[in-house]
Every structure is written in C-alpha cells, then in structure tokens.
C-alpha cells in the first residue's frame, strides 16, 4: 500500500507542475578530508542520502557544471542536477531545490569558511561567509550571506 501511495503522490506532483526533487547526493572528496565527512553527516541528519566518492581528482565534475575556479572548495556534491561546492548550509540547498531559480547551475561556499557546516563546532552559528550562485552565462551572485 505504501508503494501505491508513493506512486500516486509522485504522479500528483508531476501533473500539478511541481518538481519532485531527489534527496540523493553524490559527493566527491579526498579520502583524508574530515570536514567533508562532517558536512555529509549534517546533510544525512537533514534527510539526504549521501553517496561519498573518495578520490584525489574530480575536476571533470566541476568542469561539467561550469563551476568557476575561484569558487573551489574541498569537496563537490551533485544533487538533482545542481552542483554544490564546499560547505554550503543545508538550508540553502533546500531553498535551491524548492525554488529552482532559472539559470543557476549550482552553489558554492568558496574555500573552507571557519564557521560553516562541517567546519564549525556542533551547535555554533554559521557566520562569516557567503554562499555564491554560479549561472549558465558564467556570472556569479551572492545567494545568501552568513
């Protein structure tokens, strides 16, 4: 019965014009990076399923999405057609998946901001960094300020 209800819900969302966002994340990170693992743990606690690919080089993934080099961070994630670079808060990932703004290819928290998810101590406020959107036309913009 649960499967039938899920099929009906999915069909209802599709026919109503709403998108059905996936909660599956493909994450690429260095095998030795602990802060990346912490970010993945935070995302899993928020209900996402994170598949971690531990490797030394994943520039092909960044290139595929046209991510500007100036936005690079220590890990890269792909969710529902968007690239998420670095320690982007789950709140902004959820907002992106809900709003689906036209022309945005992904979000980035460049570098390794000290007070970002996975870098901050558990329970600390996220602060002192921006989340940057990168667009189809090669431009960037501030998506959120912390």
UniProtKB/TrEMBL annotation:
InterPro entries named in the record: DUF411 (IPR007332), Thioredoxin-like_sf (IPR036249)
Origin superkingdom: Bacteria
Protein name in the entry: DUF411 domain-containing protein
Cited SUPFAM superfamilies: Thioredoxin-like (SSF52833)
Species for this entry: Vibrio breoganii
Keywords attached to this entry: Signal
Any one Pfam family match given in the protein's UniProt record, by short name: DUF411
Leader sequence segment: 1-21
The keyword Signal is assigned to this record: yes
